[in-house]
Design a protein that fits this description.
This protein is an alpha+beta fold. The chain has two domains: 2-36; 61-137, no CATH class. It is built from three helices and four strands, in the order αααββββ. Strands 1-2-3-4 form a four-stranded antiparallel sheet, covered by helices on one side. Strand 3 (123-130) and strand 4 form a beta hairpin. The longest helix has 21 residues, at 2-22. It is elongated. It starts with a helix and ends in a 9-residue tail after the last strand.
């Protein structure tokens, strides 16, 4: 019986070694799946536009037109007199679109959208826009200081 048990152990050891050799790895390497998994890279996201940015052209025209109309109405200014100071695509850290209000709760996920800063009369309005097109003015927003 001892001889039979020894024979079975030898066969199991040889089979394990043969399987590992076919996969191009030693038995120790075959036992560690962590080594063969690729490590995903995480891209850097720009969540706050640089303070010296003066960009336009990244926001869809229909969204920009809605924002200009809103700014003109809020400030009693003609739409033609509203100036685009900054308009860019941004990935916000959460559902607050970079402008949280005290006491409010927001989705904790990255949100693609836009930041548009418009000059209407004497007022500078900082619009935060989700990719779905919903927008709001960020009070006390404006261009980040840097």
């Amino acid at each position: 019986m001892t001889r039979a048990l020894f024979g079975i152990l030898v066969i199991v050891a040889l089979a394990t070694t043969a399987c590992a050799a076919r996969q191009g790895a030693s038995p120790d390497e075959a036992a560690s799946p962590e080594q063969s998994r690729p490590v995903p890279s995480v891209p850097e996201l720009q969540t706050v536009p640089p303070s010296d940015a003066s960009m336009t052209g990244e926001v869809p025209a229909e969204i920009l037109a809605d924002l200009v109309a809103d700014a003109a109405e809020r400030t009693s200014t003609e739409p033609e007199a509203v100036e685009v100071i900054q308009a860019q695509a941004v990935t916000w850290n959460d559902g607050s679109l970079g402008c949280p209000e005290p006491g409010m709760f927001y989705t904790q996920a990255l949100v693609d959208g836009y930041q548009v800063i418009l000059q209407a009369g004497d007022e500078e309005l900082d619009y935060r826009v989700s990719s779905a097109g919903g927008f709001r003015v960020c009070e006390g927003g404006g261009r980040p200081s840097g």
